[in-house]
Amino acid sequence: METATPRLRRVFKAFEYRDFRLMWFGACTSSIGTWMQIVAQGWLIYRLSHSAFLLALDQFLAGIPVFLFSLIGGVVADRIDRRKVLLMSQYIQMASAGILTFLVAADLVHVWQILSLSFVTGLAQSFGGPAYSALIPTLVDREDMPNAIALNSIQFNLAVTVGPALAGLTLAKLGEVWCFGLNAVSFIAPIISLLIISTRFLPQKSTESIFSSLKQGIRFVREQAGMVALIVLGFCMTALSMPVRTYFPVFVHDIFHRGPETYGNLLSLMGVGSICGSLGVAGGGKLAAKGRFALVMLICLGVGISIFSFSKSLPVSYSVLVVVGASMMAVFATVTSLVQLITTNEMRGRVISVYNCAFRGGMPMGNLVSGWLVPAFTAPVVLGVNGFLLILVALYFLVFERRVAEL
User: Fold this and answer.
1) For 243-270, what is each residue's pLDDT tens digit?
2) Do residues 82 and 131 touch, judged by C-beta distance below 8 A?
3) 174: which DSSP letter?
4) pTM of the predicted model as reported, rounded to 2 decimal places
5) Which helix (H) or strand (E) holds 140?
6) What total of structural domains would you count in the chain?
7) Which of 173, 257, 294, 404 is in the most buried spot, having the most CB atoms within 10 Å?
8) In whole angstroms, what is the distance from residue 250 CA to residue 374 CA?
9) Which of 41-50, 128-137, 277-286 is predicted with the least confidence, judged by mean pLDDT?
10) pLDDT number for residue 407
């Protein structure tokens, strides 16, 4: 017990900070609602259209605003109280979920409406994302920043575990409208958290133009050793790995011939693995050679995605997705920690926006390309190739471009 207690305290060290706890629980509640909507929305689009391309297009439209506007969002996060930016983002996302709830309840919903609301939600996230990523490190001391980032990953993946499971049950028993409605209500939690925390970052007034501030952020990125390589790696890993989640409805419907419960199970088990990966990073303390560890986990991720892609056995797919989730989150959390540790607080919003532009921008780009390829080559073939490419990317950074491996 004496050995276990310090270990647990190290894993959950960031929870000792009041403001971090409030943000964590608020964000977790909202993320659970968001994942309930993601599950229901993917299922609804495929039910209405039976189109793998529209599934990918929905993900593209949700992610492309982050790619287009995240850089501006980062400048805003360094100039305006980050809480205010986040509150506005939450209000817009709540309204989008509420509108979708009404459309489905009134039986007026069409795919184009879902796609439009996905774009609006992505636009809100393009400003809220940099503000949130820049806010979290200011809630803890610098030495506890990697732990806070890992625990923040846990809340997201706890939601990935709980949200899809709840969505599967809700879809089967109550229907899609309840998933969308519960998501709208879930935004109340982060709004309350944002209203009662006390942040440490007070933006400095600036007479510079947005473009000049943005150039400063890009210059900072270029001057930091390994930062450009981390950003390239962030784009590659999301572009190649995230489509696996997008095409779960295709695997469930066309390969396993199951219903929404199985769809929820796939997402939940991937979330279980992600929680394990995040806990491993959080408990790792001051892990040496973070860059090399991230690249090894990227190889595991590529292998896992390739095995899942060609599996015809549901139990095998369930097992492999736990490994995929764990390795995916280990990579994401470690690379994000490296970016945050290199960055100074006054530049954090802009630098994180550049990273998010690549990290989040890889999602719509990867989904759009796979959306074109899947109808011609099938989802298993496209995702299997993606897994192989992830392995090649990791080997390139391990053997040839070693700046990441040396961090």
Assistant:
1) 888 888 888 888 888 877 787 788 778 8
2) yes
3) T
4) 0.69
5) none
6) 1
7) 294
8) 10
9) 277-286
10) 66
407 secondary structure, DSSP code = -
What backbone phi and psi angles, to 5 degrees, belong to 140? -135, 165
191 burial type by CB count under 10 A (0-12 exposed, 13-18 middle, 19+ buried): middle
Question: pLDDT of 115-135, one tens digit each?
Answer: 999 999 999 988 887 788 778
Exposed (0-12), middle (13-18) or buried (19+): which is 192, by Cβ within 10 Å?
Answer: middle
Per the listing, tokens 């295709």 go with 250
- Listing DSSP states for 28-48 in one string gives HHHHHHHHHHHHHHHHHHHHH
Residue 204, domain member (yes or no)? no
Query: With pLDDT > 90 as the criterion, what percentage of the chain qualifies?
Result: 24
Q: How far apart are CA 374 and CA 284, in angstroms?
A: 39
CB-based contacts of 331: which residues, under 8 Å, 6+ apart? Answer: 237, 294, 297, 298, 301
CATH, residue 168? 1.20.1250.20
- Mind giving me the DSSP string for 342-369? HS-GGGHHHHHHHHHHHHHHHHHHHHHH
The pLDDT value recorded for residue 1 is 44
Q: Which two tokens stand for residue 171?
A: 């879809």
